[in-house]
Structures are given as C-alpha cells and as structure tokens.
Amino acid sequence: MLFADAPVSGGAMGAEAGTLAILFGGSEAAFTAIEQPFRLMGSELVHCGPVGKGTAFKLARNMLHFISYTATDEALRLAEAASLSLQDLGRVVRHTDAITGGAGAVMHRDNARNLTEDDPWWDIFQLPLGLAGKDLGHALEMAERLGVDVPMARYAQANIGAALGYPTGYRAPDAKPDRVG
C-alpha cells in the first residue's frame, strides 16, 4: 500500500481548466503510480518529498498568497485615500506582474541563505532593492500625509534587503536604472 498527500493550488478556475498545481508528498513509487492520472487535473505536478511535504509546500505557498492580500489591502487603502482608481491600479498591477513575475520573480533562487557578492543574484537584485527603498519611502510619506496606516509597507521597507537575500543591514546603492522599464 502506498500513501501520499497531494494538496492542490489553483482554485476552482484551475480545476475547471485542468491546470491545477498538484503538490505531491510521498515516495517515488507512489508518485510514479499517480503521476499520469494527476496530470489530467493539473499542469504543474511537483514531487515535494516524502508524505507530508505536499501539505507543507501548500502552506508555504498559501502563506505568501494571503500575506499578499494583506499588503494589497494597504495599497488599495492608500490609493483610495489618494483618490486613485482602484480598478486602474488592479489592471496595472496585473499587467506589470505579468511582465516582471511579481513576487514569484524573487523565487528563482534554490535556497534562502544570505547572498554573497559572488552570487549572480547579488547584482540582479541591486536595482529592485534600490527601487524598493526609494518607492517604499515615498509611499510611506504619502500614507502618513493621508493618514493611512500601512504596517506591512513599514515592515517591507525595514526588511526588503533580507527578503531579497542580502545580509542584515545591507543597503543598496541609490537606484539608478540603466534602462527604461
């Protein structure tokens, strides 16, 4: 008898389209036994490790998802206080996340240890780190001026370097993009 856990991600839309992400935890033998039937339901099948790892994977994925909802709420409240169109903001976020990869863009690394200067990601993340410092600073100033409480943004400003993998206390050089975009 083979045992496994295989939570899914992708919601009702993914289930209807057969494009779910299926997060499989179990032995290689169990994975081989279910792989083909599961591919009928999902387009992203990940063998996460032994039994229980599929669920752990799903919890980490959903933690990111629901924290992003909280951050989104702050952005929406700030935009509303600034008399901006929330529909336009949503459209721009979806558009630019499709280009840049959104939060998933920083998830190409294969570990969560601090970067070192010889790591290729060190240079890659310099621009986003500098831009985050500048843009979060301006957003926090605007939030204060408009009386909008944005604790997630304050946390992000204080921790963006660590979130990108830089050592504690590292500060990026001033953000100066070398190209428009």
UniProtKB/TrEMBL annotation:
InterPro entries: 6-PGluconate_DH-like_C_sf, 6PGD_dom2, 6PGDH_NADP-bd, HIBADH-like_NADP-bd, NAD(P)-bd_dom_sf. Residues 2-49 form the 6-phosphogluconate dehydrogenase NADP-binding domain. Residues 52-160 form the 3-hydroxyisobutyrate dehydrogenase-like NAD-binding domain. SUPFAM superfamilies: 6-phosphogluconate dehydrogenase C-terminal domain-like, NAD(P)-binding Rossmann-fold domains. Pfam families: NAD_binding_11, NAD_binding_2. GO terms for molecular function: NAD binding; NADP binding. Signal peptide: none annotated. PANTHER family: 3-HYDROXYISOBUTYRATE DEHYDROGENASE-LIKE 1, MITOCHONDRIAL-RELATED. This is 3-hydroxyisobutyrate dehydrogenase-like beta-hydroxyacid dehydrogenase. It comes from Nocardioides ginsengisegetis. The lineage of its organism: Bacteria, Bacillati, Actinomycetota, Actinomycetes, Propionibacteriales.
